Amino acid sequence: MLSTTIAGIALRSPVLLAAGTAGVLGEMRDVLDPSQLGGILTKSITRAPRDGNAFPRITFARAGMMNAIGLANPGIEAFVRDEGPKVKSMGCPIVGSVAGDCIDDYLEVASKLAGIEGMAGIEANVSCPNVHSGLEFGSDPGALRELITAMSSAVGDLPMFVKLSPVTVGTPHTIVDLARVAIESGARGLTLTNTVPAMGIDVRTRRPVLANVTGGLSGPAIHPIVVRLVHLVYRGVARDAGVPIVAAGGVTRWEDAAEFVLAGASAVQVGAGSFASPRASVKLRKGLAKWVRSQGASGIGSLVGQVELGA
Ligand SMILES: Cc1cc2nc3c(=O)[nH]c(=O)nc-3n(C[C@H](O)[C@H](O)[C@H](O)COP(=O)(O)O)c2cc1C
Questions:
Q1: Mean pLDDT over all residues of the chain?
Q2: pLDDT tens-digit profile of 114-169?
Q3: Is 310 a member of any domain?
Q4: Is residue 60 one of the residues assigned to a domain?
Q5: Which CATH number covers residue 163?
Q6: What is the best residue among 57, 218, 252, 260 to mutate for testing ligand 1's pocket, by most ligand atoms within 8 Å of CB?
Q7: How many whole angstroms from 241 Cα to the centroid of ligand 1?
Q8: Would you say the CB of residue 166 lies under 6 angstroms from ligand 1?
């Protein structure tokens, strides 16, 4: 009922753990059995180790959470040495998330992650500023094309997902334009989306709640925003290109995952939902399977994009 295949990766469940919300690789094994998951995204890995931003760098918002972790991670060398040997026996597909400041960074990290035995795929987190232009790679079609074309050859046969930001403020390009560029450049899947830029202020101290001043909002607050983006990208480019969408944004209950599927997602990721309820990603499978049956569908794949828009 729930098994599916995205970009050639066979998943037992369409529910994965989102990058940066499940530790570096296998930390969630303490609370759940990975074989009940569709897969795990690693923390975004950069070339050099990063301590991340100053604390506080996570805060709870009324309908979700805000973070400004700043890509704290051990760096590619330590990841390959300490985590790499665990990848093949994690019990579910592992997708390596890559971040960087310039194309060379992305290429080095992507090719080293792709070389780890058992790695199922790569996700390019392109919501990072390009040191050359100051713009995020993911908001600049020229830079995105160059990056994804180069990464596609660096990862060889391994499927690569491109993870876009939900906002394209300051550029004339829509998320559909950027998704099209990613697909034309070799993306085998799209992850929609990263967090929504946000800020909170403690009115008593008059200080920002995050030390970094601004951060990214995730959780139920962003779910309807991302449903719309999945719908637009599915109908605008992904459906015809045959490229699967993996939706991330506020999945905490089976209904959220089902809504994403109807909008056009082939799989979903749970991020903030795991902070509120660490087993949310496995718990929601039961309701999701029941829903698939209640819709008279043979499997979840046949419900992708099946929102009824007519009167
Ligand atoms: C604490 C935290 C850390 C995150 N770190 C990363 C990261 O390293 N790389 C990345 O691509 N996305 C990162 N994200 C974004 C999530 O993967 C996801 O795209 C986003 O939170 C939306 O999903 P959600 O509403 O289910 O949390 C992070 C999110 C949170 C809450």
A1: 96
A2: 999 999 999 999 987 666 676 789 999 999 999 999 999 999 999 999 999 999 87
A3: no
A4: no
A5: 3.20.20.70
A6: 218
A7: 26
A8: no
pLDDT recorded at residue 134: 65
Sign of CA dihedral 156, 132, 139, 145: negative
Indicate if ligand 1 lies below 6 Å from the C-beta of 71: yes
> Average pLDDT of 71-84?
97
Query: Are the C-beta atoms of 227 and 172 separated by less than 8 Å?
Result: no
User: What is the per-residue pLDDT across 212-232, written as a single tens digit (0 to 9) for each?
Assistant: 999 999 999 999 999 999 999
204 within domain boundaries:
no
Per-residue pLDDT tens over the stretch 88-122? 999 999 999 999 999 999 999 999 999 999 999 99
Instruction: Please tell me the distance between residue 293's alpha carbon and the centre of ligand 1 in angstroms.
Output: 31
Q: Catalytic annotation on 128? A: yes
- Ligand 1 centroid to Cα of residue 85, in Å, is 24
Cβ–ligand 1 distance for 53 under 6 Å, the answer no
Ligand 1 contacts CB of residue 191 (under 6 A) = no
Percent of the chain residues past pLDDT 90, beyond the cut: 94
For residue 290, is pLDDT > 90? Answer: yes
Which of 41, 68, 128, 144 is labelled catalytic?
128
The answer to whether residue 214 is domain-embedded is no
Domain that holds residue 108: 4-52+71-197+219-303
* Strand stretches in the chain, DSSP E: 4-6, 9-11, 15-17, 39-41, 58-61, 64-67, 94-98, 121-125, 160-164, 189-192, 196-199, 201-202, 207-208, 214-218, 245-248, 267-270
Q: Is 250 close to ligand 1, i.e. is its CB under 6 Å away?
A: yes
Shortest-distance Cα residue to atom 14 of ligand 1? 20
**Cβ atoms of residues 37 and 17 within 8 Å:** yes
Q: What's the structural domain count of the chain?
A: 1
Burial 231-241 (b: 16+ CB within 10 A, else e): bbbbbbbbeee
